[in-house]
Amino acid sequence: MSVFQIVKDELDSIIARDPAARTRIEVALTYPGFHAVMFHRVAHGVWIRGWRFLGRAVSQMGRFLTGIEIHPGATVGRRLFIDHGMGTVVGETAEIGDDVTMYHGVTLGGVSPSVNSAAQVNRKRHPTIRNGAIIGSGAQVLGPIIVGEQARVGANAVVVKDVPPGVAVVGIPARPVTRNASSDFMAYGTPTGDHPDPVARAVEGLMEQVTALKARVEELEKHEEQRDVVAPMTLPGMDRNNPATEGGAEIQPLRRRVES
């Protein structure tokens, strides 16, 4: 595929996903996400040929001009669309598939500690984003995890575990809210229909358990009070089980009199 065909596919994919994009020339001249991807194509090309400093220099130039930082070592597939894009960061060992959509403020980062960084060189530290996934604005996808094909990551979600294909996740930490999400585009990766909040759903479950336990405690307390009322009266010093002992011996003559 020629360079011109690659650029054309990139432009057409952006027009297909963004109703604000009208023409190829408009996208080519005014869309920082497109500029960042083009800078990365060049930076990655020289990076994999061993010209590491030049790759970083081109990457930093793209960051300065677009506000989007993509490490030259990252692998980026075809037709990546970074909408708006300001503040987006893609780490060195990140892998992005084809037809992925990302929004501003996204981080594809690592979670390895900063100590002994030499031991982490050439190790997988950043996420893998499969084909067709959508990563909403402000989402933090951290560690060497996999976001499956056609998955949806909601805005401001923090993802630290694998996301199965076709699943939409939201929250901190991210939890699934709907499956088979691939049929919907979901702008910003966030479901807008009547989908329950996983945190609210968990809280509601806890409240139901607390209500049931409270009712049970009240029932037991009421039963205990009733048992205390009907319990037989015991005189001081009297053993309830053996009334003939201690103080209970004093009432034996009275009992004989009544019986006679």
What attributes does this structure have?
260 residues, alpha/beta
Characterize this entry briefly.
The protein has 260 residues and is of the alpha/beta class. Helix content is 36%, strand content 13%. The strands form three sheets. The chain has a six-stranded mixed beta sheet with strand order 3-6-9-12-14-15.
Show the helix and strand layout.
Layout: H1 3-17, H2 24-30, H3 32-47, H4 52-66, E1 69-70, E2 75-76, E3 81-82, E4 89-90, E5 95-96, E6 101-102, E7 107-109, E8 128-129, E9 134-135, E10 140-142, E11 146-147, E12 152-153, E13 158-159, E14 168-170, E15 175-178, H5 198-229, H6 252-259
Parallel strand pairs: 1-4, 2-5, 3-6, 4-7, 5-8, 6-9, 7-10, 8-11, 9-12, 10-13, 12-14
Antiparallel strand pairs: 14-15
Structural overview:
It is a single chain. This protein is α/β, with parallel strands linked by helices and 260 residues long. It contains 6 helices and 15 strands. The protein has a 6-stranded mixed β-sheet. A hairpin with a 4-residue loop joins strand 14 and strand 15. Helix 3 runs antiparallel to helix 4. The longest helix has 32 residues. The protein is elongated. The N and C termini lie far apart (120 Å).
Q: SS-based structural class? A: alpha/beta
Please give the number of β-strands: 15
The best one-word shape is: elongated
Strand content: 5-15%
Question: Helix content range of the residues, please?
Answer: 25-40%
Low-pLDDT stretches:
none
Q: How are the strands ordered across the major sheet?
A: 3-6-9-12-14-15
Q: Helix tally?
A: 6
Largest sheet: 6 strands, mixed
Task: Give the CA-CA distance, first to last residue.
Answer: 120 Å
C-alpha-based Rg, rounded: 34 Å
Order of helices and strands: HHHHEEEEEEEEEEEEEEEHH
| Mean pLDDT across every amino acid position | 83
